Amino acid sequence: MELSDRKKKILRAVIDNYIETAEPVGSKAIASGLGLSSATIRNEMAELKTMGYLEQPHTSAGRVPTPIGYRVYVNELMERHRMSVAETETINSGLRARMKQLDSLISDAGRLVSTLTSYPAYSMSSRSQKLTAKRFELVHVDDLTFIAVVILSDNTVKNRLIRLMSPLDENDLKRYSMLFNNSFTDKTEDMITPQLVMAAERVTGDENGVIMTVAGFLIEVLSDVQQTFVTGTSHLLSHPEFQDVDKARRVMNYLSDSGEMMKLPVPDQGKNVKITIGPENLAEELKDSSVVVAKYNVDENMQGLIGVVGPTRMDYSKVAAWLAYVANALGFMLSRNDTQFPGIGGRTDNDSIDNKED
Amino acid sequence: MELSDRKKKILRAVIDNYIETAEPVGSKAIASGLGLSSATIRNEMAELKTMGYLEQPHTSAGRVPTPIGYRVYVNELMERHRMSVAETETINSGLRARMKQLDSLISDAGRLVSTLTSYPAYSMSSRSQKLTAKRFELVHVDDLTFIAVVILSDNTVKNRLIRLMSPLDENDLKRYSMLFNNSFTDKTEDMITPQLVMAAERVTGDENGVIMTVAGFLIEVLSDVQQTFVTGTSHLLSHPEFQDVDKARRVMNYLSDSGEMMKLPVPDQGKNVKITIGPENLAEELKDSSVVVAKYNVDENMQGLIGVVGPTRMDYSKVAAWLAYVANALGFMLSRNDTQFPGIGGRTDNDSIDNKED
DNA sequence: TTTAGCACTCTCCTCTTCTGAGTGCCAACC
DNA sequence: GGTTGGCACTCAGAAGAGGAGAGTGCTAAA
Q1: How many distinct structural domains can be found in chain B?
Q2: Mean pLDDT of chain A
Q3: Beta-bridge mates of residue B353
Q4: Closest-CA residue of chain A to B252
Q5: B51 touches strand D (CB under 7 A)
Q6: pLDDT tens, residue by residue, A65-96
Q7: Predicted local confidence at residue B236, as pLDDT
Q8: What's the confidence (pLDDT) of residue A342?
Q9: Which of A147, A252, A337 shows the shortest C-beta gap to B234?
Q10: Are A164 and A284 members of one domain?
Q11: Measured in Å, how far apart are chain B's first and last C-alpha atoms?
Q12: Backbone angles phi, psi at B346, to 5 degrees
């Protein structure tokens, strides 16, 4: 059951119009734009309705796209959004202004996307287990306290304040510091065995449990495989489809409850962007929202997602383009280990968008 | 115009009841509890109404407390909430579970409070200018890149990835590192003058701008006087007074827009907790919400606030007690520089609550 | 001073009516 | 045969009317 060219045009006009107005669109509204009479449009619309692409809130209302309609729109009908210079500049300046520490890059990017799109954004990164420590510093605070600073192989920095039972002077700390730099760097989480820790303890005659404690901290940060951030949930409230508080709350709670993040969509192999529409979402709470998510690759061992959640009536084209751009920039910054992002003027088209559902 | 004992009892009963049910309370509802007939209560209520402590949504509805009524309640009527063992244990375990790095202590505390109270929470800390650097580490990434790690006098750790124009080897980096540890530690922001930077540049013959860049980064973190975090705004939606999306959105936007934080209340000199009710709030957006905020002191040079925002119908007593407890713990952890919090079992009463409005 | 009683008020619910946007379908037209 | 104007029809939503019930204010009696 293939759509005629005219049907496609009409479907597209309906969706474009609906995205803009959030009101069911009547035949008159689009008749002028297509050079056809409203009666003709009505006939076509009726067929589109029986084919499942459009629906009516009630008999004598205008038409509203169904998720299937959106799907077709996203897959073949919508104009690829070509980003304007102003848009890229907005994003670039946002990136420059916010991205300061690698550690917070991922959450900052989410914040930026949420501000730009006016939808809630989520961002997460995950890595296969291969993170290692690259450098340790143990910084003296007082004789019972020091800070363990560890610089990881991805150039993020973690620290923990550690208190001891019995005192330790700065020289002791230097010794431990050297020990860690010698024995615990370049080791993945599973290489930090009790044997290794015990061996180190034997060498230093550690009575304070310093090694145990720091090693514990190290294992903790190395195994921290995944980070998730959600921002801007309150943006939902400004969209007419979330005027129902209960509906809004369900989605917002779902997003805040980051344990549930697992059910959010992920672009398929070889694709960078995925759009899931309404019931295509696995999570019950998102069955009448849409998700647009972009993937960024840092290296073979780390990748991440950045996405937004919004009503099914979403400007898919623009959101997808923006997300792809930000994801690209993020991958660039993370793999170069560089928070300076010069802008990637040339590549503003989003050719690799994966907008097929499966 | 002093309230009779009986009027106080009635006012208290009305407010207690209203806090619980969120419905206007009628005379019958509280008559039984006070051993008086509903008619008597009605007469008293009518007077409380003319006195401004109660109001009616409409002529034949029950009574609802006015902000002035809440004020009296908070100042003299409400029972001081004595925290149960279970409650302190809930908080303590929350503290233990989340508070891991000093850097994130403040935001983590906000998150905890929001979860505990089911209200949006905000937390902020500010210090007078006296922060200094305590230790520098410049960590080699590649010849064009290094990470500047600086440990500050409050034992938080900041880092920044820095790229250079021309290469620098590990030995150079060590030299710079020493230089910074010699010349830039224990200096407040205003002591880092262009002269100082230039002098340092002269010593090392720095052509890479390393000193300039790191000094800039240092000034940036030292002058980062204030941090603000808001979490859990979506909790608002579960309260009946925020079923109106517009109302909820106004408050949520206000809170997300952290630039506006300045208008949030602060406990008065010598007091630890402040409660502002409805129109007592300076911010227009909060004129019909209430804020409970607790102060914590770390040392003479740093203090912070942690507070929640909710409907005027709030369980002031409980919220104030919890906030005071968390603030206390936070001050304790920050001044001992210790993220281990053993629990402060003894001091569970909140004697120093400042519930007077001015 | 307290209480019982009663008329009264006002919200909320339901039911009805009305209006207008938009449809579906038919007959005429190109 | 596809396209169009015309017209009867439908239905949501607004506006209005009536009824029920909760709770009041006031008065008169205890």
Answers
A1: 3
A2: 89
A3: B273
A4: A234
A5: no
A6: 999 999 999 999 999 999 999 999 999 999 98
A7: 95
A8: 62
A9: A252
A10: no
A11: 19
A12: -60, -50
Phi-psi region of A218 (alpha: psi -120 to 50; beta: other; left: phi over 0): alpha
Kindly state whether residues A113 and A246 are assigned to the same domain.
Answer: yes
**Residue A312 belongs to domain with CATH number:** 3.30.450.40
Give the gyration radius of chain B's Cα atoms.
26
Domain edge (last residue) among A182, A205, A223: A223
Domain-ending residue, one of B174, B192, B223: B223
- Name, in order, each residue with C-beta under 8 angstroms of B281's C-beta and a sequence gap of 6 or more: B263, B265, B287, B289, B290, B291
pLDDT tens sequence across B77-95 = 998 999 999 999 999 999 9
**How many angstroms separate the CA of B244 from the C1' of D16?**
26
Cβ pairs bridging A and B (under 8 Å): 95
B233/A233 Cβ within 8 A: yes
Same domain for B205 and B257, yes or no, is: no
Q: How confident is the model at residue A227 (pLDDT cuts 50, 70, 90)?
A: confident
Q: What is the pLDDT of residue B355?
A: 46
Q: How confident is the model at residue A234 (pLDDT cuts 50, 70, 90)?
A: very high
Q: Are residues A236 and A337 in the same domain?
A: yes
Claim to verify: residue A149 and residue A283 sit in the same structural domain? no
Identity of the amino acid at A224:
D
Q: How many CA atoms are closer than 13 Å to the CA of B358, on its beta-carbon side?
A: 2
Strand partners, A294: A273, A306
User: Which pLDDT does position A250 carry in this prediction?
Assistant: 93
**Residues in chain B, pLDDT under 70:** 1, 258-260, 337, 339-358
Q: What is the CATH number of the domain that holds A39?
A: 1.10.10.10
pTM, full prediction: 0.88
Residues B219 and B231 in one domain: no
**pLDDT tens-digit readout, B162-182:** 888 889 888 889 999 999 999
Pairing of strands A353-354, A273-277: parallel
Q: Which residue gives the smallest C-alpha to C1' distance to D12? A: A58
Based on the fold, state whether residues B154 and B243 are members of the same structural domain: no
Domain that holds residue A150: 133-223
Instruction: Calculate ∠ Cα B98-B253-A101, nearest 5°.
Output: 50
pLDDT in tens, B335-354: 876 766 666 544 444 444 44
